[in-house]
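User: two proteins, same treatment. go.

Assistant:
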Amino acid sequence: MKLNRYIDHTVLKPTTTLEDIKKLCMEAVEYDFAAVCVPPPFVKLAKTFVGNTTTKVATVIGFPFGYSAIEAKVAESVLSIIDEADELDMVANILAIRNGDWGYVEKEIGTIMPLVRNKQKVIKVIIESGILLEEEIIRCCELYAKYGVDFVKTSTGYAEKGASVEAVALMRKHLPANIQIKASGGIRTFAFAQELITAGATRIGASASVEIMKQAH
C-alpha cells in the first residue's frame, strides 16, 4: 500500500498564512501526496507551488457548516474552477439532512454536479457522519450514489466528532463500488489511517500527514 497516494495534505484553518500554504505544498510534493486541500483564496497559489507534479489541488465549498445557499455554493464552485482547482470538497447542507428535507439535499447536488462534470473536476461531498444518525448516513449514500459523485467524505474536522471506522464501513456497505470514500477529521496516526483504509477509505484527509508518514516507516 502506497499510503502517500491516499493522503490529502490539508490546512483549512481561518488563520492560514501564505507561508503555511507554501510549506504544505512543498511537503506534499516531497511525499508525493495525492492532493493538498486549501482554503479557496489559496487555490491559485497552491497550483503554482505544486506545479506539474502528480499532487492535485483540492479546495472546499460551503465550508465548514454547509448551510450556505445553493447559489453561494455554485458561485464558490465556479470561482474554484476558474482558479483551476482539481477537486472540490463540498459540505452538504447538514441542516437539510437533519431536518429530513431530502428534496433540498437532492436539489443542491443536482445543481452542482453538471458544473463539476462539465469541467471534469472531482467532487467529494462531506456529510459530517459523526453527527448523523445511521439511517441519515445510509440515505446520503443512496442519494449521492444516484448523482454519481466521486467521493462521499466523512467530516470537515470542525464537528465534535470526526472520522470513525464504523462510519466508513457503513458508507462502504451502502455505496456502489465506483464511489470512493474520503475519511477525514481527527486522523493523526498511521494506525488509525490504516484502520480507515481497511474499512474502505481510499483517501485520507489530514493535517498530520507528515507525522503519519513518519510513523509508517
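Protein 2:
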Amino acid sequence: MKSAGTTAATGAAVTESGHVVPRGLTALLTTAMAFSMMQLFLLGALGPRLVDGLGVSETLLGLTTTVGFGTAAVLSPTGGRIVDRVGPRRALVALLAVSGTALGLIGAAPGPALLLAAVALGGLPQALANPATNKAILAAVPAPRRGAVTGAKQSGVQLGAFAAGLPLAAAAGLLGWRGAVGVAAVAAFAAALWAWRALPADPPPKAGAVLRTPPASDSPVPWLAGFSLFLGAGIASVNTYLALFGAQRLGMGPTTAGALVAVLGVAGIAGRIGWSRAAAPGRAPWFPALLAAGAVGSAVVLAVAVRVEPLVWVGAVAVGVFAVSGNAVSMVLVMQRSAPGRAGQDSALVAAGFFAGFAVGPPLFGLLAERGRYGDGWALVAGEFLVAGAVALLWAVRDRRTGRGGTT
C-alpha cells in the first residue's frame, strides 16, 4: 500500500503502515483544542471590559478560572474513561457542542452568577480534550508522525489565545463583548458539525464500565501530573491577568492589552510545535525541566516589566515559548509511555493535574492584583514554575537511573 494512496469512499490518506488518516485531521484536532479552552482566553482578554461592564472584580475574575478548571480537574479522570469507552468521534463532537453552549451562556450572562455557571459547564470540554484528541492520534497516525501532530494540535490551545486576544478582542470593540463571545459560540457549533462529518464512525460503545486500572509502577503519569499542577498554576495566572496588568498597571488600552494575550498565543503555537517535534523518546524526559527553567525566566521578565514597560512583550513571548510548551511535551511523553488501552486515562490524569493548577493559581494572583501588587504576583508565578521544574528534574533523573530514558 502506498503512502500517497487514498480511500475511494472518503478521500482520506492511507499511510504505508495501513493507518487511514482522515482528511484535515490535524486541523480538526487543533480546532477542538482551541475551543476546549476558549472561554479562559476570552475571559482573560476581555477582562478589562468585564471588570468595567459586568461589575466583575479582579478576585472574581480569578474565581471564574477556578470554577472552570476545578470542574475540569474533577471530571478529567472520568472523562478519560468515557473517551476510552465511546471513542474519539463522539467525544470530539460533544466537546465542541458543549463549548458552544458554554460560550453562548457566557455571552448572555446578566451577572456573575450565570457567568460562573457557564464557566463550570465549560469545564467538561476541557476534561475531554486531551483524552479525545490523543486517542484520535493513536488510532489514525503512525508513530513517527505522532510527535508532530501532537505538537500541532496542542498549539490549538494557543491558537485560541490568539483568536481571543486579537480578532475577538477587536470584535468586542465593534460588537460589544457579548457579541464577540457570541461569534465564538457559533463557530464552536460549526466545528462540531465538521467533526461529525469528517471523522470515521466510532465502534459501538464498550459494554460495561471501563476498568480503573492504575498506571504502571514505572509510569511517568504521577510525576507529569505533579509537574502540570504547578505549571498550570503559573500559566493560568498569566492567561487571566496579563491583559489586566497591561491595562491597569501599564496604561494600555483594552485592545492593546488584549494583544498581549494574542502575542503569547502565537509564541505558544510556535513553541508547542517546535518542542513536540524535537521530543524524541531518548531526550523527551529532560524537556519538561528545561522548559520550566525558561518559564521561570519569563516570569522574572514580567516582574521587571512593572518598571521597564516594553519588557512585557518579551515576557509574553517567553511564557508562550517555554511555559505553554510544557503541556504539549507532557502529552507527547504520555503517548510514548502509555500502556495499550490506557492512553485516554493517562492523558486525563495528567490533564487533571494541569487543570487543578489552573484552578488554584489565578485566585492567589487575584488577591495580589486587587491590591496592585503585580510585581509580587509575577514573583509568585516564578515560584510555581520553579517547583514544576524541580518535580520534572527529579523524574528525569529517576527515569534515567531506571534505564527508561533511552527507550523508544
